[in-house]
Batch of 4 targets.
Target 1
Amino acid sequence: MFSHRAWGKTYPAVLLVSLLCVVRSPTIADAQISATQPANDAPSAHLSFVRVFSSADDVRRTHPIFDRTLDIIAGPADPVTHVDALQSPSAIATDSNHRVFVADPGAHTVHAFDFVQSKYDHLDPHGDRLQNPISLSVDAQDNLYVVDQGSRTVLVYDAAGKFRHPLGKLRGGESYFDSPAAIAIDQRTGRIYVSDRLRHMIFIMDARGKLVRKLGNRGGGDRPGEFRFPGQIVTAGSELFVLDSGNARIQVLDTAGHFLRAISLGDTDPHSGLAVDNRGNVYVSDPYLNQIQVYGHAGQMLYRLDLGKFPSEIKGTNFSHPSALWIDAGDCLYVVDSQTNRVGVFQIKRDQDKPPQ
């Protein structure tokens, strides 16, 4: 259970950066944007590597003199297997108190890392609710919404980690989701968006969880506002971004669900991540090419970040399968590596939206 009293302080974004990042209804023809593919760009020109983390040990402050004294008196500690470690991370999000939440279906929990106060905790320690948590998001009150694929529902927890209620559960224990894949919340209105891969649809609910609208058709489609195996979704300003995996595109809609435009992608993967920064640039990860592709708000390709090109002397930058992405208000980019079971943190440089020369 999270300790809201201990973690309740709010810190300005500048402090967070210093602590963590330095520790008409258009047709598809006239709205589809074909992104040109420039040469790979060195990631260090656009991102500053900050750190990686993978377990509770990474959030706790170390005391080298004290630890060294213990080693002398009692000898080095025996190696142990940490249970508070990422096992198969699938999604990441942050809240206004700068806590970092990581959904981990392998560990049947959601990890909570607080780097400001050097604390670690996790949801559902007794394992009685979370079966297969695969996605998450946070509302304006720091309530945490967790997509649990095992129960096919969205589980809602308050800011202190106390379970409140499920979303999507019908009478008799059934759910109106078939295969919920991702969730996004419009913090201005409280509206909740859930993608359902097998139903090829996006569900829109109000802040109380009442169904407002369904987007898409059963069986899928490739017209504007139709989807095939939709994956990650993100809200940014008045827009909703949907990774339409089966159609190899990102569809951009307004938050009421009306189609605005599409960004054509060369290829997509079910595990690709999606994020949007505060300038409207769109980030898509490619786990197999070990890349992050960055598009401008209008859909033009800006550059590709090859994570294998970070300087080898920077410890911890040997990423292999970047999947889930998240960008916070301080321009910190969080990248989940699904193969090495860890998260990388990068600071986005402010000139990053300029195309390479």
Note: Residues 4-348 form a domain with the Neuraminidase fold (CATH 2.120.10.30).
Target 2
Amino acid sequence: MSCSRRSFFGSISLGAAAGLLWPVTGSSQPIDLEPSRNNQNDGLIRLNSNENAYGPSPSVAQAIMSVVGSANRYSRMKYPALIEQVAVEDHVRPEEVLLGCGSTDILRMAAFAFLGRGKRLIQALPTFEGIEHYARALDSEVISISLTSTFAHDLDEMLARTKSSSGLLYICNPNNPTASLTPRQDLEEFIRRLPASIFVVIDEAYHHYAGGSAMYASFISHRLDNERIIVTRTFSKVYGLAGLRLGYAVASPKTIGQMRMFAIEDSVNTIATHAAGAALRDHEALSASIQRNSNDRQEFFNQAMARSLKPIDSHANFVMLDTFHPAGDVVEHFRKNHVLIGPTFPPMDTHIRVSLGSQDEMNAFWRTWDMIPWSKNIMRH
């Protein structure tokens, strides 16, 4: 990651940070003094990367600005305090926590620790592709299993494809790109039946958005006594810190030790450590962010239903819906109208993934949808 000091101040001034106002009531509407979220100045509306459209809370923005003057210092002395803070927040031991440059970096460490030639990665299709890229770079076999008709992981088929040489099984829950859940009870039974040589990565990037569903429980807050389970979390989503790149793993000390051997020294930067600490302390902002996303998600469903669309039930900050037309053509239509949405996700070739944005951004999305010539005839399907 690279960002010059000049470009940083160009995107958020001291005055803007000091005057930052951020809604904490669950309202979807940002208020007037909030700085622009479109720092690229290219006129594009970005609904393509599952980012938090509202950015960090005021307390986190203040923490970021307060530490800019320390950017000349390495952050390694700050790691123990942040690890301790994460451990307290998640009710685990510090030796069970590993920091990384985004949770994608955690996936890289897991791949390097438990994959390689002659080993196998088993994953869903479609799912987040990060760990697959590392597996292929390590010359591991990649087995991708289609989701079930309810968009859950097909655990029976995954189990059938495991064998003693397998190294890693990846479960993204809620899943990206479908925002769907695989029931916790099913996952527990599945893990109990896996061969002892297989490690399981459970990616909880969207954990905070999953809510109180009876189907869902985090593998951090409700742990299994199994040292082969690695849970990943990120500060990119609910905390609005995607650009600072910080994630972490929770696993047994032995497993953390195996992964740490592949960590990049000083991979977590000074600004990220301060921002994360402030984010973990700001419980009110966290609750407000979750509620606002729930409101925005419901409004998306309201608009979709009014157009006779039926999205997949979402437990994240994005929604996937069937357009009944080639997804690539729909993505291109939006791009031509300056709205970026997610890429195509084979084999779901008629589905599009839409990240939730601000009210103005979602209004632009629906205006652009209504410009599609066949959109008024969707009820025929």
Note: Residues 283-306 form the longest helix (24 residues).
Target 3
Amino acid sequence: MPFSDPNWPVVNPEPTVDDCIKSMRMRDYFMVAGITAGSWVYGYCGGKPVRRATASTAAALGLTFASFLILQDTRGRFMGYNENAQEVKKYGMHPTAQPPVYPPQDRRYPTATGLVSDTVRPPLNWKTHQ
């Protein structure tokens, strides 16, 4: 992530875990609850001899996964890689952050950014190409 330009304004270039937890949206809380509940149901359905123990273990794994997923999402919003209009309104832009250079584009149609130099990957020579 640090090697590509963010598409949205940067709120905090180096957010901590506390910052991410404090800025969770309602959607994030529902996502944690849904993933945890879904993994509990999966563990209950798949753990026939000891259903409740398997379900509890699966719920713990689901909660861990959901926590990592939410922290990644909120960190991306702080750093400007995900849509962050609410965070910009609440916390403001970072003092040294520049407005985004590129307008947000459709993720289905990526554009080449030219991050690979010609010394690493020389241009294709069609005369010697086999």
Note: The first helix runs from residue 17 to 22.
Target 4
Amino acid sequence: MSAVKQIEAAHARNLAVKCSRIASMPEVGIFWLIDKKLVADSIPWRQANIKGKEYTDYPRGRVLFDAMEEVFRVYSSRAIISSPALRNLILAEFKLPLAATKFAADYHYENVVASLLDEDFDA
């Protein structure tokens, strides 16, 4: 699925959720500007900050498709990338083919709460 299609799908999900929300509640999230149209993926602000943390406080990563090499690229912190259990979890969650997936550590994802990486991901 192309990036534009993924963004449009997120937008469609977001619109469906918004129909059931209180209209006056401010929201937070991410957005894109595509063909002069604002596309957003957001949630009510009271739900977003339940733990009082920013999104950068949690271990995270990103999965992309490299059309030139025809491989999936998973970018995350060194701790996540170096964990076989977490790699397998990511492969399964995103339904990625092992032979066509490359993992790489990226500095952008290094500022995480270390204690969260100590959890048992074999379950």
Note: DSSP finds four helices and five strands in the chain.
